[in-house]
Amino acid sequence: MPAGLVWVHKPESSLLKHKQLRSQILTAVIACAIVLVSPAAFAQSVSGTILIKKRLTKPRVTASVPMYQRGPSVQLGEDSGQSSRQDPIAFERSRVVIYLESGPPDTQTAPAQETEVRQMDRSFMPDIVVVPAGSTVSFPNMDPIFHNIYSLSKARSFDLGSYDKGQTRKVSFPKPGIVEVYCHLHPNMAATVVVTPNRRFARPDSTGHYSLENVPPGRYTIVAWHKTAGFFRKTIVIGSSEQATADFFIPLDIDSKQKEQTAAAGGASQ
Question: Which residue, of 171, 197, 223, is where some domain finishes?
């Protein structure tokens, strides 16, 4: 050994600890990189406009006769769609729900919600609510008369029985679907619970614009559902750096059928 040099022996245990520390640091760096490049890091928004040019909802006709009343007289709530103060097209837009029906798995579980649908003035208020699957809706009775809320929908059927003012009943909605709700005692009462498969849903504003935020890249089916016109679907693809746009024109179904019948009749006469 050259003069002036001192040989230092490192125990094998120290070398092993040094290798383990390097391995742990490398693992931490890789984990951070995975987080940074995960799909959520490239999440974009989906936006669009609901285009409606004609009235779709038929005016509600409820006769003022005893068969619609049980117990004390209760004034029938005003149908917002028939109000002279309500823009008919804005009203139709308010009957629309937009949501993502299918696509890559959602890594963030939709938080369960509890929503309230009041029974007031022999009406449901609001008459359309949107909740993710797994949520609960309560139905408090605000009228001085009995109500009996029920549904025969495939997505969720139930019968809450008759209950008086100040009482409430709750219903859970474990799976997605459209649930139509009625009252056994008051045939004019109707509401809809839209149960979405995930937390990505929206309602358009009065101008028809909507937006779904923080949607990871992927291929999706986006749905626009209208209370009267039904379902409209489109396929969208969201890139890592591009937002997606999906506009929906919701026509009056009866007009479309009339056009088809007219075209068929015209072809048959030729």
Answer: 197
Q: How many domains does the chain have?
A: 2
Task: Answer with the one of 197, 213, 245 that is the final residue of a domain.
Answer: 197
193 or 5: which carries more pLDDT confidence? 193
CB 189 within 8 A of CB 183: yes
How many whole angstroms separate alpha carbon 52 and alpha carbon 253?
A: 12
Domain carrying residue 215: 42-60+68-104+198-270
For 197-244, write each residue's pLDDT tens digit: 999 999 999 999 999 998 988 899 999 999 999 999 999 998 876 788
Domain-embedded: residue 76: yes
Residues 131 and 159 both lie in one domain: yes
- Separation of alpha carbons 44 and 215, rounded Å: 5
Looking at residue 269, its pLDDT comes to 41
> What's the mean per-residue pLDDT of the chain?
80
Matching residue, tokens 């506009």: 247
